[in-house]
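Consider what follows.

. . .
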Amino acid sequence: MKYIITESQRKLISELERHWIDFEYEEQYNRLKNKLVSFVVSMIDSYDNRFGEIVLFDSSDNIVMVFKPHSENNRNGSLYYDRSFVDSIEGMFAHPIWLRHGKYVMADAFNHLYPEYIVRSSQSANIS
């Protein structure tokens, strides 16, 4: 059975919905989104599917992000992006931009590369 929901209902059930404190910055993100996502996507050089996870690497074979499905054959999952990657690019943006929008940028970059997957949560992590 499939349900038809509105965009506002989808936002209500999405874990990536902005917190109340970030609502005023959503318009700012929408203006910057294409450039920020394109920048992150351009830094992705290769990928690997291992243990059911999608792992994305930069040109130096450092892990940039890992998508972990919630269950086998599930297209929903959690996205973890590497803190050292964030540290390397964070200084390229004005101070609050990455703090406010980082997890959305990474989720949107992953969805740009893999539109068939749904990122339910996005967070930085120490990935080795």
Residues 25-125 form one domain. The mean pLDDT is 82. The longest strand covers residues 118-125. The chain has one domain: 25-125.
